[in-house]
Specification:
By secondary structure, the protein is α/β, with parallel strands linked by helices. It has twelve helices and nine strands. The chain has helices spanning 3-14, 30-43, 62-73, 78-88, 102-108, 110-120, 136-144, 159-168, 192-202, 216-223, 233-241, 247-258; strands at residues 18-24, 47-51, 95-100, 124-127, 148-149, 152-153, 173-176, 207-210, 228-231. Strands 5-4-3-2-1-9-8-7-6 form a nine-stranded parallel sheet, with helices on both faces. It is globular, with a radius of gyration of 17 Å.
């Protein structure tokens, strides 16, 4: 049983839903990015999605695009991201999922990549733009290395493709609640519940739902349907707005707030309830 399997099994036994956080590795720089991962783990995140900065992030909205630009300027590369994961892994209980586009993997080479990722302690990999029809070799290589391959499903994904993703995937499946690029919104997409129901009919794998989630009420709503909520752009916005002195405190406060800790208060830099896409 993988670390991700254990995570979701423990969530089920505890009768609670999980929180998956997304940050861009190297934003605002590699040392502070490592500190942010440690804080996320201590503050209650169940799975850490670590984004590999990429120069052409087609599925990402402006908030994550700017984070990738900052990380690239700070010298982040796939190799350095894996070094970062290896450095923090002994201190982190949460599962770590590498979130990347296919190009950096192909540039490194599939075999060297999975060997290095496994040695670093990566638990899962999501290659965002890898077509499910071409994912057989990716699935074979990752599972052979003890890494869970994770696949993305959208409201327009056909039932046949959902079934195929369920056959190939391990750890969990990642459902995106709306079409378009990433970004925090003021409400969960209307089709989110229906998407989760369609995925449930095809598999017993846990389902994490993301895109547009930024507030505790969003996390609670998603928890009624899915096994975990994914928060990305809104967290990166907190990171971008926080001062250097307050950065880690604001990250911790935001994650506790998302988890329903009323004592945390509304963190500065959070997306207001009336915000639109970012």
């Amino acid at each position: 049983m993988s670390r991700l399997d254990h995570t979701f099994e423990n969530l089920r036994r505890g009768g609670r839903r999980g929180l998956v956080t997304f940050t861009t590795a190297g934003d605002p720089d590699l040392p502070r990015s490592a500190d942010i991962l440690r804080v996320l783990d201590r503050s209650g995140a169940d799975v850490l999605e670590v984004g590999v900065p990429f120069s052409d992030p087609l599925a990402d909205g402006p908030v994550i695009q700017r984070a990738s630009e900052r990380a690239l300027r700070a010298g982040a590369t796939l190799t350095r991201v894996l070094d970062l994961v290896e450095a923090v892994r002994p201190e982190i209980a949460a599962g770590i999922v590498l979130f990347t586009y296919a190009n950096p993997i192909l540039r490194m080479g599939m075999t060297p990549f999975v060997e290095r990722a496994a040695a670093a302690g990566v638990d899962g990999v999501l290659a965002l733009d890898l077509p499910i029809e071409e994912a057989g070799a990716f699935r074979e290589a990752t599972t052979a290395a003890g890494i869970d391959p994770i696949f993305l499903l959208s409201p327009t994904t056909t039932d046949a493709r959902i079934r195929r993703a369920a056959e190939l995937g391990r750890g969990f499946l990642y459902g995106i609640s709306r079409l378009g690029v990433t970004g925090a919104r003021d409400a969960i997409a209307e089709g989110a519940e229906a998407l989760v129901a369609r995925i449930r009919r095809a598999t017993d794998l846990p389902i994490a739902l993301g895109f547009g989630i930024s507030r505790p009420e969003h996390v609670a709503a998603v928890g009624r349907w899915a096994d975990a909520a994914v928060v990305g752009s809104a967290l990166i916005e907190v990171i971008a707005r926080a001062s250097s002195e307050r950065l880690l405190d604001e990250v911790a406060r935001y994650v506790r707030w998302l988890g329903g800790d009323a004592a945390a208060g509304v963190p500065s830099g959070t997306v207001p309830a009336t915000a639109g896409e970012r």
